[in-house]
Design brief:
100 residues; mainly alpha; 5 helices; 0% strand; elongated
Length: 100
């Protein structure tokens, strides 16, 4: 038993830990955190993504939305009048029309 007590007393004392930030800095941090916008506001501003879909499906949802947007844009571009039609309707002058 004497051996165990001698090894315990031979250990160096545990270092005293100081707070990692001073109280003034902690106060500033608390103030800024209290002014932080809520989750709904961040979603509305497109900073956070809406988590109404399971995280495993989030990438698939975004890929689908992107594909739908691309299809919609492609359709809109196909419906767009060409330069000849714009000249015929008086929207473009003949000199402004790009060469065909």
């Amino acid at each position: 038993m004497a051996d165990t007590t001698s090894t315990e007393s031979s250990r160096p004392p545990a270092p005293v830990r100081k707070a990692s930030i001073d109280p003034q800095m902690a106060g500033k941090l608390e103030q800024r955190l209290s002014q932080r916008p809520d989750k709904h506001d961040l979603i509305e501003r497109n900073i956070l993504k809406d988590d109404s879909v399971a995280p495993a499906l989030q990438a698939a949802k975004e890929k689908l939305q992107k594909a739908q947007l691309e299809d919609k844009l492609e359709h809109a571009l196909q419906q767009r009048p060409n330069a000849e039609e714009l000249v015929r309707e008086g929207i473009l002058k003949d000199t402004e029309a790009p060469p065909a």
